């Protein structure tokens, strides 16, 4: 199964950016652990601070991959364009956030993307990514002695 983890603005600073909110570990140090936890899945990741690059990546994989795990960062609350892109593609998307958005500032409690996603996971730090990947794995048809 091909899964893309797509990270938006400022997520390249994980481990250094506001560690009290986002933790002390970088995504790059976590990703090999995620790959090891799901060895049968083809996991790739992409990060950009630029909205257009995120849109281009959604368009690129949105009809070929089995799933997208999307942490749009601050664009979650502001980008109609990203919400439209998620709505337009065929690939299911799970929205993830490291912090618990319900416990954050008022403007962070509204997601423009969520209504177009299969689901949203927030508040579990980097484990939010693992939970999202596990959901995609659970959606695979069960193969017991035959091919589907």
Automatic annotation (TrEMBL):
<feature type="binding site">
    <location>
        <position position="71"/>
    </location>
    <ligand>
        <name>substrate</name>
    </ligand>
</feature>
<dbReference type="InterPro" id="IPR001874">
    <property type="entry name" value="DHquinase_II"/>
</dbReference>
<feature type="binding site">
    <location>
        <position position="108"/>
    </location>
    <ligand>
        <name>substrate</name>
    </ligand>
</feature>
<feature type="binding site">
    <location>
        <position position="84"/>
    </location>
    <ligand>
        <name>substrate</name>
    </ligand>
</feature>
<keyword id="KW-0057">Aromatic amino acid biosynthesis</keyword>
<dbReference type="GO" id="GO:0009073">
    <property type="term" value="P:aromatic amino acid family biosynthetic process"/>
</dbReference>
<dbReference type="GO" id="GO:0019631">
    <property type="term" value="P:quinate catabolic process"/>
</dbReference>
<comment type="function">
    <text>Catalyzes a trans-dehydration via an enolate intermediate.</text>
</comment>
<protein>
    <recommendedName>
        <fullName>3-dehydroquinate dehydratase</fullName>
        <ecNumber>4.2.1.10</ecNumber>
    </recommendedName>
</protein>
<feature type="active site" description="Proton donor">
    <location>
        <position position="97"/>
    </location>
</feature>
<feature type="site" description="Transition state stabilizer">
    <location>
        <position position="17"/>
    </location>
</feature>
<feature type="binding site">
    <location>
        <position position="77"/>
    </location>
    <ligand>
        <name>substrate</name>
    </ligand>
</feature>
<dbReference type="Pfam" id="PF01220">
    <property type="entry name" value="DHquinase_II"/>
</dbReference>
<feature type="binding site">
    <location>
        <begin position="98"/>
        <end position="99"/>
    </location>
    <ligand>
        <name>substrate</name>
    </ligand>
</feature>
<dbReference type="GO" id="GO:0003855">
    <property type="term" value="F:3-dehydroquinate dehydratase activity"/>
</dbReference>
<keyword id="KW-0456">Lyase</keyword>
<dbReference type="InterPro" id="IPR018509">
    <property type="entry name" value="DHquinase_II_CS"/>
</dbReference>
<dbReference type="GO" id="GO:0009423">
    <property type="term" value="P:chorismate biosynthetic process"/>
</dbReference>
<dbReference type="GO" id="GO:0008652">
    <property type="term" value="P:amino acid biosynthetic process"/>
</dbReference>
<keyword id="KW-0028">Amino-acid biosynthesis</keyword>
<dbReference type="InterPro" id="IPR036441">
    <property type="entry name" value="DHquinase_II_sf"/>
</dbReference>
<comment type="similarity">
    <text>Belongs to the type-II 3-dehydroquinase family.</text>
</comment>
<feature type="active site" description="Proton acceptor">
    <location>
        <position position="22"/>
    </location>
</feature>
<comment type="subunit">
    <text>Homododecamer.</text>
</comment>
<comment type="pathway">
    <text>Metabolic intermediate biosynthesis; chorismate biosynthesis; chorismate from D-erythrose 4-phosphate and phosphoenolpyruvate: step 3/7.</text>
</comment>
């Amino acid at each position: 199964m091909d899964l893309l983890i797509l990270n938006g603005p400022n997520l390249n600073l994980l481990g250094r950016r506001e560690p009290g909110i986002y933790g002390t570990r970088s995504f790059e140090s976590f990703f090999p652990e995620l790959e090891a936890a799901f060895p049968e899945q083809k996991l790739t990741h992409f990060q950009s601070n630029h909205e257009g690059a995120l849109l281009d990546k959604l368009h690129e994989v949105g009809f070929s991959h089995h799933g997208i795990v999307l942490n749009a960062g601050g664009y979650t609350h502001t980008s109609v364009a990203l919400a439209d892109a998620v709505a337009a593609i065929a690939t299911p998307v799970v929205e993830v956030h490291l912090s618990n958005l319900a416990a954050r500032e008022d403007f962070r409690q509204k997601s423009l993307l969520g209504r177009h996603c299969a689901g949203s996971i927030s508040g579990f730090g980097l484990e939010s990514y693992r939970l999202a990947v596990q959901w995609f794995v659970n959606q695979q048809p069960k193969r017991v002695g035959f091919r589907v």
